[in-house]
Amino acid sequence: MTLIRLALVVLHDAHGRVLVQLREPDKPYGGMWGLVGGHIDPGEAPEDAARREVREETGFAVGDLTPFGHVIAGGLERFVYHARAGGEVVPGEGVAYEWLSTLDDRPFVP
Question: Alpha-carbon distance 106 to 38, whole Å?
């Protein structure tokens, strides 16, 4: 079985809030909230994919990425990074974006 490889980023601001995005209805997990990120292109390093996805989806150019986790489950390989972001989100692929201080009862991507 071929794994689907994803690069995700826990983006936080100066106040410790984490950026989440509402996924487009026609995408997998559409209508759910999740981290910024997406597919790793063939031959692309996970860290490069993480930077590309952040830029495409938020307009942020992140510098240092700190590895946060690596999970293989359910046919998905997820590379998760942590980075600091600042400024205003320039919406890309998501429907909406919010900075959260705590998780709430909205539907999140598993």
Answer: 21
User: What stretches of 1-110 show up as alpha helix (H) in DSSP?
Assistant: 46-58
pLDDT value at position 28?
Answer: 84
φ, ψ at 49 (rounded to 5°) = -65, -40
Q: What's this model's pTM, rounded to 2 decimal places?
A: 0.89
The reported pLDDT for the residue numbered 37 is: 94
Helical (H) or strand (E) element with 65: none
- The token duo for 62 is 């992140």
pLDDT-flagged residues of the chain (< 70): none
Rounded-to-integer distance, Cα 26 and Cα 30, Å: 6
* CA–CA distance, 66 with 29 (Å, rounded to integer): 26
Nearest-angstrom CA–CA distance, 26 and 65 = 29
Distance (Å) of CA 105 to CA 22, 40, 63, 102: 14, 29, 31, 10
CA dist 77 and 42 (Å) reads: 14
Q: How many degrees, rounded to 5, is the angle at CA 55 between CA 49 and CA 56?
A: 85
